[in-house]
Design brief:
The complex is a heterodimer. By secondary structure, chain A is α+β, with helices and mostly antiparallel strands. Chain A contains twelve helices and eight strands. Chain A has a five-stranded antiparallel sheet, with no helix packed on it. A three-stranded antiparallel sheet of chain A has the order 6-7-8, with no helix packed on it. Classes of the chains: A alpha+beta, B alpha+beta. Chain A binds chain B through residues 135, 137-138, 141-142, 144-145, 148-149, 152, 159-160, 163-166, 170, 173-176, 178, 254-255, 262, 264-267, 269, 291, 293-294, 296-299, and chain B through 66-67, 70, 90-91, 108, 111-112, 115-116, 118-119, 122, 166, 168-169, 178-180, 182-186, 190, 192-194, 196-199, 201.
Chain lengths: 329, 220
């Protein structure tokens, strides 16, 4: 039976913000968008914008005469694919700038370390007496021959060991990734590592002794302080540069990307969770992925090795990560 | 071709490489012995080196006894099985990268030769001798670099029931817990296999993909 237009309008409820906020489809839609966003702060801004936009669209549909439920659904349809929306919010220029900054800091740290070590070698070489029993270069040649044999063997066997387990990952640029990531893991702030700072204090007496000996031999004490400060600064630069790697972790359909290296689900034997006590907010988590590596030759005397990697998981994404991993590991 | 045929050609090339490595080492030790001033000193040094080599060989044989037994066991188990597919292990010398490995090995060998030549000059102080020794080292080194083609140090084989990984591990298809093909942008796939016997990551060509997928899925 066709109703009078006034009767139709009087039966339609007015749209409230809570209707949008609490609607299941809207919650799922917003979540899917945020899964593709790189940082939590960006996510908060985008969420507010999306909700505003959805509300306006739904209101327009309601003013056109649609029911509340239908208006919300039509508004959602009109918004489009949530993954594409999330991905379109990616700041590609920002990503490029961060990548260059990260690489630049690492290069600077490497140059500082090499220059400092080179200076230490030159200065220490100048202060020692030449050998009396033979040409000074002879001992250095034997040392160089030893290092030529030792270091490649060590690097090669380390590389082989890592490769056997699959946990060192495949560089992402080699892979053909046809789909958008399922989830981009958000970074969170870490607190200052006071424990490591206090442990380093124990080494101060040893450094002081070396500085006294150095000064006693007639060398410039500020040179030694300069070397120590430069090396400490370079190490800090290496660690700090990783802060600009955003995103650090991605969950794809086929595996996890950890710092640009892909680890497949097949390589992961089990997972465990712990709290991240280094997080400024203690409610964040560490996801530990493990691979149980059986040693070759079925060597029964040696028990299998467990190789672990840990991944920072923001508390706001904890449940999504669990639901994704439940299906795949 | 079956697995024992492959092993036979592998052992021949491995022996050849070992001979040339031994020749290089003997040349180096010969120079050290010759550097001694008197024949008495040279004799003593030779005796010490022979004793040292015997002790090292004894311990190396003991260390590798288990793995040698394992290799023999694998050969007896799957020696007569025909090979369906040969693929590369991810961590080894992959077919696509063999020229990169050769180049790297060549550069490293030349650097080692450079250091050795300086050492010989300090010991012998004769440029002519140093050039001759350097040339001999170069001649003994080339076959090692070029043997990479045939050694196939990362070869893995699919037979009717098992996967042989790097000659040291047998993975039965029915023991595979999970496996995954990961597509590569330049074509081909990585195949990750997690089984009771261990983990393996293999590089598979496009042409082999369907066959290998069917082989594993029918038995796993």
């Amino acid at each position: 039976m066709i109703k009078d237009s006034t009767e139709v309008k009087s039966t339609i409820e007015s749209l409230q913000v809570e209707d949008i906020l609490n609607h299941e489809s809207v919650i799922a839609f917003i979540q899917k968008v945020l899964d593709q966003v790189y940082t939590e702060d960006e996510g908060k801004v985008i969420k507010d914008e999306l909700l505003d936009h959805l509300y306006s669209l739904a209101e327009d549909y309601m003013n056109a005469g649609h029911y509340k439920e239908a208006s919300i659904r039509k508004a959602l349809l009109q918004m489009g694919d949530p993954s594409e929306i999330g991905y379109s919010f990616t700041d590609y220029d920002g990503m490029k700038r961060r990548k260059f900054l990260r690489i630049g800091l690492k290069v600077l740290a490497s140059i500082l370390i090499l220059a400092t070590l080179g200076s230490v070698m030159i200065f220490s070489g100048a202060s020692t007496e030449p050998k009396i029993d033979g040409p000074r270069s002879f001992g250095d040649l034997w040392t160089m021959l030893f290092y030529c044999l030792y270091f490649p063997i060590m690097i090669y066997s380390n590389f082989q060991t890592q490769g056997f387990t699959g946990m060192n990952g495949i560089p992402v640029h080699q892979l053909k990734i046809s789909q958008d990531p399922l989830l981009v893991l958000w970074a969170y702030k870490k607190r200052f590592p006071w424990e490591y700072f206090f442990i380093s204090i124990f080494f101060i007496p040893i450094i002081l002794v070396f500085m006294v000996i150095f000064a006693y031999e007639g060398n410039n004490i500020f040179l030694m302080i300069g070397f120590i400060v430069t090396i400490a600064f370079s190490i800090w630069l290496f660690i700090h540069s990783e802060k600009y790697r955003i995103p650090k972790y991605l969950i794809l359909e086929d595996g996890i990307v950890i710092k640009n290296r892909f680890v497949s689900w097949t390589a992961i034997d089990r997972i465990s969770w712990s709290r991240d006590y280094m997080a400024s907010n203690e409610k964040h988590y560490k996801l530990i992925i493990e691979h149980i590596h059986k040693l070759p030759n079925n060597n029964a005397k040696m028990s299998p090795m467990t190789i672990k990697k840990s991944i920072d998981v923001n508390a706001n994404q904890y449940h999504q990560v669990i639901s994704i991993l439940r299906e795949r590991v | 071709m079956n697995y024992s045929d492959y092993l036979l050609s592998y052992k021949i090339y491995k022996k050849r490489v070992f001979r040339f490595v031994l020749l290089n080492i003997c040349l180096f030790i010969g120079v050290l012995i010759f550097h001694r001033e008197t024949w008495h000193d040279r004799f003593i040094m030779t005796v010490w080196i022979v004793l040292l080599v015997m002790i090292i060989t004894h311990f190396v044989k003991k260390l590798f006894k288990v793995s040698q037994m394992r290799l023999k066991e694998i050969e007896q188990t799957v020696g007569n099985e025909p090979i369906y597919h040969c693929v590369d292990n991810f961590i080894g010398i992959v077919k696509g990268n063999i020229w990169n490995y050769k180049a790297l090995l060549l550069v490293y060998s030349l650097f080692l030769l450079f250091v050795l030549v300086f050492l010989y000059y300090e010991l012998l102080s004769s440029l002519v001798l140093v050039v001759i020794l350097g040339t001999m080292h170069l001649v003994f080194m080339m076959p090692i670099v070029f043997a990479l083609n045939r050694l196939g140090t990362s070869a893995c084989f699919f037979t009717s029931k098992t996967l042989i990984v790097n000659r040291t591990t047998l993975i039965a298809y029915e023991h595979i817990k999970k496996y995954q093909f990961i597509e590569l942008i330049k074509g081909g796939y990585y195949l990750d296999i997690n089984s009771i016997e261990g983990f393996a990551r293999l590089k598979i060509d496009e042409a082999q993909y369907t066959d290998i997928k069917n082989l594993i899925s029918n038995h796993a």
